[in-house]
Amino acid sequence: MKIRTRYFASFRETIGQNEEILTLHEGANVADVCALLLSRYPRLQAIMERSACAVNHSYVPLDTILHEGDELVFIPPVGGGTLPSQEHPLWSL
Amino acid sequence: MEPLILITHEPLDRNALVAAVTHPGAGGIVVFEGVVRDNARGNQVRYLEYDVYPEMAIQQIRAIVAEAQQRWGVQHAAVAHRIGRLEIGEASVIIAVATPHRGEAFEACRYIIDTLKMTVPIWKKEVATSGEEWVEG
After folding, report:
1. Phi and psi dihedrals of B89, rounded to 5?
2. What percent of chain B shows pLDDT beyond 70?
3. Which of A65, B34, B36, B131 has its Cα between 20 and 30 A from that of B12?
4. Å from B47 to nearest chain A CA?
5. Is the pLDDT of residue B31 over 70?
6. B4-130, which class in CATH?
7. ipTM rounded to 2 decimals
């Protein structure tokens, strides 16, 4: 299946493009895409660890299963400086 | 009333946002304006560059305002965020809230800006004399 990733802020500058179409195996989840991107772009490591992720415009946890045509975006820390954590993950807001 | 939500490259128009929330039943209007500061963590800032994930930012702001409407009965709210390059002293965000009594307006405005800064996918890059960096806070 294919999904679309869009890159913003530090992700866009590190990767050097605005978006990509990724081909994934059926049943792949967000964590699989993290691993794929880290293998392609090792310099993402530090920022990836501090980022939340969104599928189709909503914050989701890493074990979210992806589907054909989904839009996945990694959200590096935003202005408030509050990092998503186990106690207060962004996707629960 | 539908809240006014705006993300734009253009300078923000405070008067237009206040006008958008003004109504005969309002007893108080609270306006928060965030402006670009010339220093951060000991660095001398030259300018800021804001980036946004527009579709999600609009959706998140809409959800935040809806929550404020539910908690404080806010009927009239406007939220505008500027993106792109901003110079020192320019407004990056303006929030205007009008309610029948002042207490709700203060609380709702505070809630909207605090939550916006935590959850809305808008990022800023500080371009300082010493270098540039995507920052938090």
Report:
1. 90, -10
2. 99
3. B131
4. 16
5. yes
6. alpha beta
7. 0.89
Rounded (5°) CA angle B73-B78-B81: 135
Residue A81 has pLDDT above 70, yes or no: no
Q: Does B87 touch chain A (CB under 8 A)?
A: no
What CATH number did the domain enclosing A54 receive?
A: 3.10.20.30
Q: Which residues of chain A have a CB within 8 Å of the CB of B112?
A: none
Query: What six digits make up the tokens of B32?
Result: 């928060």
Total domains, chain A: 1
Contact A6 B120 (CB under 8 A): no
- For chain B, the domains span 4-130
* Pairing assessment for the beta strands B76-82 and B4-8 based on DSSP bridges: parallel
pLDDT of residue A86: 42
Selected residue of B79, B134, B135 to mutate for chain A interface (largest A Cβ count, 10 A): B134
pTM equals: 0.90
CA distance B5 to B77: 9
